[in-house]
Amino acid sequence: MKAGILYNDKDIRVGVAPDPQIKPDEVLVKNLSAGICGTDLHIYRGEFHARVAFPAIQGHEFGGVIEEVGAAVTQFKKGDRVVVDPIISCHSCPACLTGHINACRTLKLLGVDLDGGFGQYVAAPASHVFPLHDSVPMKFAPMVEMFGLGCHVLLRGKVQPGESVVILGAGKLGLSVLDVLCHSANPGLTIVTDVQPFRLDTARKLGADYAINLEHEDPVARVMEITHGEGVDCVIECVGHYHEAAGGEAPLQQAVKMIRTAGRIVTCGLGKQLSPVHFKTLVLKEAELIASRVTLGEFPRAIRLMAKGLLHPELHVTHELPLRDITAAFAQVDREDARTIKIVLDVQQA
Known about the structure:
Elements: E1 2-8, E2 11-16, E3 26-35, H1 38-44, E4 61-69, E5 81-84, E6 87-88, H2 94-97, E7 108-109, E8 121-125, E9 129-131, H3 143-156, E10 164-168, H4 172-184, E11 189-194, H5 197-205, E12 210-213, H6 219-226, E13 232-237, H7 251-258, E14 259-267, H8 279-284, E15 288-291, H9 299-307, H10 313-316, E16 317-322, H11 326-334, E17 342-346
Parallel strand pairs: 10-11, 10-13, 11-12, 13-14, 14-15, 16-17
Antiparallel strand pairs: 1-2, 3-4, 3-8, 3-17, 4-5, 5-9, 6-7
Helix pairs in contact: 3-4, 3-9, 6-7
């Protein structure tokens, strides 16, 4: 099969890879659409050497049609439209045994630790495959994983209807969380911060009540002004690696100041930097600092929301390219193009 193969740091191009062989409890998926994620970019830049061995076939946001089913698989047939949950857990470590399979001690992901969706075919456990509703165009299949992340983040943050929420960062993750928040969680107030006007405009289109440009306004002061000095119920940090503006603060520093007393902070960005946090303020507020990692069974919910037309994948997917252009696609993501949110690859066009 053809595949987008990462041969070394920043060296990704189309090559030939062996066709996957399935086990009795697996299915062979003919990949049609795969998204380039922030994690893919970190791998491309050489930040995952401890987990990713070259040559590697990335891509953990993908969907397609069933090409073949294993002998023990009864719930799928050839031609079914599907998406794949890439999380492979051991189901025997302390985290898994207490229901946190997304925090598995030996967690593996298709497209990170194992071959993924940038190959034209992938072998996946049938238990990790979900039917994609006919109303959802295949080009938006990669957004199921992103919206699943949004569902999980809001669950971790215990966000309730009518609450006030700030999302720090209007990138791929932040906008996905915002879309799910605005159109399935009934917030009372939503505020988004970023430095890119295009992304802030997208946030407004997705339903944000306020979109704060960090280069023009002090986000903490503006949030306190909007909330009349009270602060918000929940701050969700989706920035990860950040570029600190002159005189600015790290996202988690901002979050501690933005929340109300007894408020909540959810952090899900995967930045490498150490973030200074004023823990005295956190303690005096008796606030909660919560981490959120990948998904925990939210794929069906995300699919249902998409099938009902409640979410807006067309605002997230800014570019559609054939797999043969994967080198250029990664270069575009790597230079952090201001008008690029999600690039989706047509995997069969190699």
